[in-house]
Amino acid sequence: MKRLASSCFVVAALAGVTGMTMGIVMAASHDHSLAPAHAHLNLLGWVSMALYGLYYHTHPQVAARPIATAQVGLAVLSVVLLIPGIVIANLGGSEIPAVVGALLALISMVMFLAITMTGFLRDAGNA
Ligand code: HEM
Ligand code: HEM
To answer: What transmembrane ranges does the database entry give (predicted)?
Structure first.
């Protein structure tokens, strides 16, 4: 399913544009206090989403399964919750959005492990 891989790349590029803009603003203002939010927007948003996209592009049969769509949806939700959550926590506010976002990121990665394992077993069976 090409649409899932393409969606991953759109989200990744959006996170990349936002994360790099944030980096430039931090560098220009000499205020690096939100560096953890910037780091994780780039690493979970740009890098991880792009890696999910690459995997689903190279494994279209796996990408066609509903669990793959659920995994990507959860990963997107985790970034949307975690990054503002880190900003809120760093500014002294509630840690709950960051905690929920982090748990969703982990669940999404565990789902990805299960998805890649079943893909691996299928490939091994066909070898
Ligand atoms: C236009 C592009 C970017 C600019 C201008 C930029 C700028 C910055 C700045 C000013 C900091 C704070 C450094 C410090 O406080 O020591 C930082 C930290 C960081 N950036 Fe970027 N960044 C950019 C892109 C990226 C990308 C694409 C990634 C990852 C794929 C990334 C990952 C990180 C990480 C992990 C840190 C935290 C480093 C640490 O705390 O040791 N950045 N960045
Ligand atoms: C559930 C997801 C994640 C959580 C909850 C998490 C949490 C954290 C925390 C609490 C720190 C220390 C921040 C500080 O000292 O201010 C950190 C640092 C860091 N993490 Fe993560 N992380 C996650 C995912 C990732 C991923 C997927 C990557 C890379 C692909 C990554 C790369 C880094 C790097 C490079 C640093 C050091 C830069 C910094 O201090 O900002 N993290 N992370």
So the answer is: 37-55, 67-92, 98-121
Probe target for ligand 2 pocket from 22, 34, 40, 91, with the most ligand atoms within 8 Å of CB: 40
Q: How far apart are CA 36 and CA 14, in angstroms?
A: 18
Q: DSSP character for 95?
A: S
Cβ atoms within 10 Å of 94's Cβ, excluding its own? 10
CA distance 59 to 64: 9
- Tens of pLDDT along 30-68? 999 999 999 999 999 999 999 999 999 999 999 999 999
Q: What is the pLDDT of residue 126?
A: 75
Probe target for ligand 2 pocket from 43, 47, 79, with the most ligand atoms within 8 Å of CB: 43
